UniProtKB/TrEMBL annotation:
Official protein name in the record: Ferredoxin like protein
Lineage of origin: Bacteria, Bacillati, Actinomycetota, Actinomycetes, Propionibacteriales
Gene3D superfamilies from the UniProt entry: 3.30.70.20
GO molecular function: iron ion binding; iron-sulfur cluster binding
Keywords, sorted A to Z: Electron transport, Iron, Iron-sulfur, Metal-binding, Transport
Domain ETF-QO/FixX C-terminal: 13-91
Species, as recorded: Tessaracoccus bendigoensis DSM 12906
Domain of life according to the entry: Bacteria
Length: 95
């Protein structure tokens, strides 16, 4: 039996992107002031967060695994996160 890499496992998931509404919003000023911005970028296993050219935190919410890690590292008031609306988000195919 072949052992799959993390990238191969993630590629098996199905993502249904809500093109009208992001389920993640970063309070840019508060996130930078508290260090949350750096933690978000470092901790997200799906690389949802990154530094944009203008110095803000870019959010590629379509890749979110809905793991909740970012909620654990964000200071209060820096991040708004909720599950995607019904029918949207990730569908895991490998358990
Ligand atoms: S819930 Fe997980 S995958 Fe989604 S943005 Fe937060 S850390 Fe990244």
């Amino acid at each position: 039996m072949k052992t799959l890499t993390t990238t191969e496992l993630l590629a098996r998931n199905r993502y249904v992107t809500d093109e009208e509404e992001s389920h993640i919003t970063v309070n840019q000023e508060a996130a930078k002031a508290t260090g949350t911005a750096e933690r978000l970028i470092r901790c997200c296993p799906a690389d949802v967060y990154s530094w944009a050219a203008d110095g803000t935190v870019a959010v590629e919410y379509a890749a979110c695994l809905e793991c909740g890690t970012c909620l654990a590292v964000a200071d209060p008031g820096t991040l708004s996160w909720h599950y995607p609306r019904g029918g949207f988000g990730i569908q895991f195919r490998e358990g």
